[in-house]
Amino acid sequence: MATIIAVANQKGGVGKTDVSVNLSCYLASMDNRVLLIDLDPQANATDYLTEEAPMVSAAELLMDPKISASEALIRTRIENLDLIPSRATLSATQVQLAADLEMQFKIKNKLKGLTEYSYIIIDTPPSLGVLTINALTAAHEVLIPVQTHYFALDGVAHLLDTIKKVRTSLNPKLTVRGIVLTMYDKRTYLSRQVKQKVTTEFNGKVFNAIIPHNIRLAESPSYHQPIMVYAPKSPGAKAYMQLAKEFAR
Amino acid sequence: MATIIAVANQKGGVGKTDVSVNLSCYLASMDNRVLLIDLDPQANATDYLTEEAPMVSAAELLMDPKISASEALIRTRIENLDLIPSRATLSATQVQLAADLEMQFKIKNKLKGLTEYSYIIIDTPPSLGVLTINALTAAHEVLIPVQTHYFALDGVAHLLDTIKKVRTSLNPKLTVRGIVLTMYDKRTYLSRQVKQKVTTEFNGKVFNAIIPHNIRLAESPSYHQPIMVYAPKSPGAKAYMQLAKEFAR
Ligand SMILES: Nc1ncnc2c1ncn2[C@@H]1O[C@H](COP(=O)(O)OP(=O)(O)OP(=O)(O)O)[C@@H](O)[C@H]1O
Ligand SMILES: Nc1ncnc2c1ncn2[C@@H]1O[C@H](COP(=O)(O)OP(=O)(O)OP(=O)(O)O)[C@@H](O)[C@H]1O
Ligand SMILES: [Mg+2]
Ligand SMILES: [Mg+2]
Q1: Which helix (H) or strand (E) holds B34?
Q2: Binding site membership of B24 for ligand 2 (Cβ less than 6 Å)
Q3: Quick one: which of A13, A51, A161, A222 has its CA closest to B182?
Q4: Distance (Å) of CA B51 to CA B47, B86, B87
Q5: What are the residues whose beta carbons fall under 8 Å from the beta carbon of B197, sequence distance 6 or more?
Q6: If DSSP codes are grouped into helix, strand and coil, which group holds residue B207?
Q7: Could you tell me if the CB of B113 is within 6 A of ligand 2?
Q8: pLDDT digits (tens, 9 = 90+) for B137-156
Q9: How would you label B70-99 residue by residue, b for 16+ Cβ within 10 Å and e otherwise?
């Protein structure tokens, strides 16, 4: 029975995709079968793991009742890691879905058949629209990447509010797995201050592993590689390995 | 007759808000009357310029036919700069609007009465949903902040595609004013490479002024101040002053 994890934060550019991809890789390297689902029309996560345009993507999975998750997923070059890719058509799907009475349950229903994975990780767009709601409705847990910049705290409060509503009306089992601090630059007072505030405010919910600001992480998608392949000895890679170990308890 | 500028890029965290606020301030300091409209439920731009919760916000302006732009705007502490603030209720408005047949024209219609401004600048959320479409439908020009990271180019291509569609079906006058490169870190090869690619691909459309990665810019919203007040001699401030001069031609 896979644990389904939504990686979410409506604030843009906080590392949702970086975390989704790199955490998935390290979990896969620890003998877990992992499925990464790219639920963002920007398809950034897809970019780390493949160079070709997908035949079937998350868009078709959401809209076409005849397509199963097994038909939409592809193997990646990373052992144990499969991907349901995204592409720009997911933008149009998002609009069509909004008119569907059962719109929040599309992903949840499609994931029911999948028993071979330990983890299903869903990358979401920077919004609380129908795609993110699908991820939150399907998930057991939410993982919240938080950039150590000023806007972090308000953003988390807003997201936790949304999670409460989803728990009340759509998914009573949904829990917050935790917050992972990202793009942390220990040389700057701002980063240290935000880290302090977040760990105080959400005591016990913040992972010890902190993802540092590391240019290797920004470079790796340009080679269509996750950090585990691109720069396995970099500070970014080590942080993700630590995160995966902490995550898998 | 105000020039209406939408600051847009569906990629998250690329500096839309940083550009919207700081460019507005420097244009205001050059004797232009400027109105900044925060059209993002995250209300980050509002955070730079006020500490109190607004009485009336962009949400009410969009939903309530009886409310005018003049009633929604507030003076800021910056001379010549007014603001239509946002707040979280704009999230709910976004959902309600999507069901409205005239949803794309709400902002455009409300801006018709405003003659006292030289510039009206609209900050948008990281999505191509109803709020961004409102901004693009109302605008004369689009300003596109682009972070010098790998995902920049695809993001711009997608946005230009959306702009074309808006021009075809909603706003024939819409033009792309230009691209402003943000968070530029000249010490990294990635930044220099992306700058190179963007300036080549969009020759003539990229501002000479480039906003450097400068921690002062990330700090300033935590003091509810734009960079012009917080750190007027910083590299970030100087870049925005240069951008404003280039922008105002
Ligand atoms: N720790 C890090 N150090 C350096 N660069 C990073 C780090 N994490 C992410 N990046 C880079 O910063 C940018 C934003 O990260 P990312 O795309 O993962 O955020 P996101 O939350 O998924 O964005 P969006 O809201 O658009 O989906 C990307 O160019 C990414 O490569
Ligand atoms: N040039 C810069 N140097 C350092 N920090 C910056 C710079 N520009 C923006 N920032 C910081 O980076 C973060 C993202 O910037 P910003 O919020 O302006 O992006 P955005 O595109 O508006 O994000 P969103 O997509 O969520 O609306 C913020 O914490 C901001 O303070
Ligand atoms: Mg992403
Ligand atoms: Mg913003």
Answers
A1: strand B34-38
A2: no
A3: A13
A4: 7, 12, 12
A5: B152, B153
A6: coil
A7: no
A8: 999 999 999 999 999 988 99
A9: eebbbebebebbbbbbbbbbbbebbeebee
From CA A137, how far away is CA A173, in angstroms rounded? 9
Of chain A, the end-to-end C-alpha distance in Å amounts to 17
Distance from the Cα of A12 to chain B's closest Cα (Å) equals: 3
**CA-CA distance, A117 to A111, in Å (whole number)?**
11
DSSP code, position B206: B
| The pairing of beta strand A141-147 with beta strand A175-182 | parallel
Find the mean pLDDT for residues A185-208: 97
Kindly report the backbone phi and psi dihedral angles of residue A137, in degrees, each rounded to the nearest multiple of 5, phi listed first. Answer: -75, -30
- Using one digit for the tens of pLDDT, what is the confidence trace for B84-112? 999 988 888 888 887 788 899 999 999 99
Residue A233 carries which side chain, given as an amino acid letter?
Answer: K
Closest CA to B7 of B136, B108, B93: B136
Amino acid at B7: V
Among A90, A127, A227, the strongest candidate for a mutation testing the B interface, having the largest count of B CBs within 10 A, is A127
Question: Rounded to a whole number, what is the distance in Å from the CA of A123 to chain B's nearest CA?
Answer: 14
Three-class HEC string of B98-159: CCCCCHHHHHHHHHCCCCCCCEEEEECCCCCCHHHHHHHHHCCEEEEEEECCCCHHHHHHHH
Q: Which two tokens stand for residue A72?
A: 């939409």
DSSP 3-state assignment of B246?
A: helix
Ligand 2 nearest atom to the CA of residue B19, by list position = 18
Q: CB-based contacts of B196: which residues, under 8 Å, 6+ apart?
A: none
